[in-house]
Task: inverse folding
């Protein structure tokens, strides 16, 4: 078979088309790389209340800035190309700069024309912009037995999203410690706690859900739940062995009446 | 060609119609560009909230939503059906430009146009060479690529780099990196490619061009018989390929500039000393046969 005749016009057309396609692959590749890059939202950048999950949000938000305009506290800002991390033009906030004040009427969501901020969010307490995590127990003042309590006090969902859990202060021996404890079921991720932390760098930080939350251990079947569900012991006829409590008749030597075990484990050095 | 082709562009028109007359549409266009920009800036600068938002999406007087249809389309192919407000906004914009001419957006609204016009002005002043001139369809390819990447990456892809909305957002919300974008486009048009950005690359302009394919408002070279080949219209037209079919068409052919590339800037009307061009609608293909100026008794001094 001979080479089919290709007219010069057709040849030029094919050449041009190939060149265009090549150029577009290159440009498109660059654009796709940028798009991928912008997906890795920095950890401190939080989306406004009601924002769809990040992947869906990026397809929905037209970067108009109407949410930013409606925010009475100037919480939200629009990302700039490259320098900020979030996809160019999309709204976000940094809790430590300006947290979300959790407006009752959620004006940012009402302003969004696209549904990138889900209009189904009608109670700001249901917002999940992130979850607060007390990331640095070693520097948190309450963890040192002091009564700072600031994060707890500023929380708009006080006593639900964050509680002070009392425990024994082992250092002083006779004081209590009031441990700020976040309950993710109620935390909106507003960032008030992070903003107000008195330390130069906050010990409590709002992290995006993807970083703050684990997924439940679905492959575990919890004995107590199974037992409740069944209404009786999971395995029938199991013998209940005596627990090793201190006291007479056990191998606990520290207690009067304790006895030497019949054999020693090798290497225990006793 | 006559010696007139070597006269400064537009000089003859200025002599004949006066400076204002020879720059009428240019002045109107700059006024319009400023007007649309100020609508957006009155709020953030002076607290007068007529329009909120940016060219990507806005709300006028709290009731009228407007959405850039190209952005809405990218969102759509990325897998999100915009909520009613944004959809209605996009349809309104689609409708307006489908009638007025898609690329009216380019010459009367877009904030990048003054930048590329300035670059072109300097380009001509410095007598620089054309530089890289990719095919006109390049922008259509860029547009298709932007849509493809949007679909594949699930994001409004062109908005990651779009200088139009980036600069507009910069003006409305505070510049920053957007100045770099302005500078980059200016330099690109000045030294890399004459009329390169708007004429060959920008997919937004390409989209609006497609949108205005059947638009009603058109430029007509109705008095083409009066044309004395000074070539000034070609020199000022940002899409000069659109002129010939209308101006140099065979007798009986339409004098209308029907190419969707025409931006309806009206600059050709301005610079033509013979008043060949005028604004009209696409159903008006009258050709007025005035006497040939060169053979007419009162022909001008060349
Ligand atoms: S809820 Fe209020 S403070 Fe928070 S981002 Fe929205 S508008 Fe701003
Ligand atoms: S209002 Fe909605 S679409 Fe506009 S920038 Fe905010 S989130 Fe994006
Ligand atoms: S982020 Fe902090 S202040 Fe806001 S709800 Fe959660 S615990 Fe409370
Ligand atoms: S081609 Fe693009 S940048 Fe140029 S005026 Fe039109 S929309 Fe603006
Ligand atoms: S033909 Fe005239 S109106 Fe159209 S783009 Fe060219 S100069 Fe402007």
Result:
């Amino acid at each position: 078979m001979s080479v089919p005749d290709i007219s010069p016009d057709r040849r030029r057309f094919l050449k041009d088309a190939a060149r265009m396609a090549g150029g577009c692959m290159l440009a498109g590749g660059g654009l796709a790389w940028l798009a991928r890059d912008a997906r890795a939202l920095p950890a401190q950048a939080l989306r406004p209340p009601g924002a769809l999950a990040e992947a869906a949000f990026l397809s929905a938000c037209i970067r108009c800035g109407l949410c930013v305009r409606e925010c009475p506290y100037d919480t939200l800002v629009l990302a700039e190309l490259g320098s900020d991390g979030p996809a160019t033009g999309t709204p976000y906030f940094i809790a430590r700069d300006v947290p979300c004040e959790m407006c009752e009427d959620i004006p940012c969501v009402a302003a969004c024309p696209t549904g990138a901020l889900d209009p189904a969010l009608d109670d700001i307490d249901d917002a999940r912009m992130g979850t607060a995590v007390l990331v640095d127990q070693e520097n948190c003042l309450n963890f040192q037995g002091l009564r700072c309590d600031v994060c707890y006090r500023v929380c708009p969902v006080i006593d639900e999203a964050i509680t002070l859990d009392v425990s024994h202060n082992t250092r002083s021996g006779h004081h209590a410690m009031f441990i700020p404890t976040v309950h993710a079921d109620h935390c909106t991720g507003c960032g008030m706690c992070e903003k107000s932390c008195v330390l130069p760098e906050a010990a409590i930080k709002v992290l995006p859900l993807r970083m703050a939350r684990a997924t439940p251990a679905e492959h575990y079947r919890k004995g107590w739940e199974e037992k409740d569900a069944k209404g009786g012991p999971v395995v029938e006829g199991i013998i209940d062995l005596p627990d090793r409590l201190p006291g007479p008749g056990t191998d606990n030597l520290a207690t009067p009446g304790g006895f030497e075990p019949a054999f020693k484990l090798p290497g225990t050095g006793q | 060609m006559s010696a007139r082709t070597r006269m400064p562009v537009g000089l003859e028109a200025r002599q004949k119609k006066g400076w204002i007359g020879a720059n009428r549409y240019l002045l109107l266009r700059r006024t319009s560009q400023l007007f649309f920009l100020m609508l957006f800036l009155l709020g953030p600068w002076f607290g007068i909230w007529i329009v909120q938002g940016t060219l990507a999406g806005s709300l006028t007087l709290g009731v009228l939503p407007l959405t850039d249809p190209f952005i809405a389309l990218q969102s759509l192919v990325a897998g999100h059906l915009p909520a009613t407000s944004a959809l209605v906004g996009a349809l309104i914009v689609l409708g307006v430009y489908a009638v007025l001419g898609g690329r009216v957006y380019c010459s009367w609204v877009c904030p990048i146009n003054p930048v590329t016009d300035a670059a072109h002005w300097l380009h001509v002043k410095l007598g620089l060479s054309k530089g890289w001139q990719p095919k006109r369809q390049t922008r259509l390819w860029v547009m298709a690529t932007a849509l493809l990447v949007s679909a594949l990456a699930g994001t409004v892809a062109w908005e990651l780099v779009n200088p139009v909305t980036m600069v507009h957002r910069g003006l409305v919300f505070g510049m920053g990196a957007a100045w770099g974008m302005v500078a980059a486009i200016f330099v690109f048009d000045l030294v890399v490619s004459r009329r390169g950005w708007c004429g060959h690359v920008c997919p937004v302009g390409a989209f609006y061009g497609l949108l205005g394919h059947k638009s009603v408002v058109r430029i007509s070279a109705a008095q083409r018989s009066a044309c004395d080949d000074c070539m000034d219209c070609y020199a000022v037209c940002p899409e000069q390929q659109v002129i010939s079919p209308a101006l140099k068409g065979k007798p009986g052919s339409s004098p209308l500039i029907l190419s969707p590339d025409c931006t309806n800037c009206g600059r050709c009307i301005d610079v033509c000393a013979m008043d060949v061009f005028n604004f009209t609608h696409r159903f008006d293909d009258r050709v007025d046969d005035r006497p040939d100026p060169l053979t007419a008794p009162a022909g001008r001094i060349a």
In short: The CA atoms of residues 109 and 119 of chain A lie 6 Å apart. The pocket of iron/sulfur cluster (ligand 1) is lined by residues A 48-49, 71, 73, 75-76, 100-103, 106-108, 124 (CB under 6 Å).
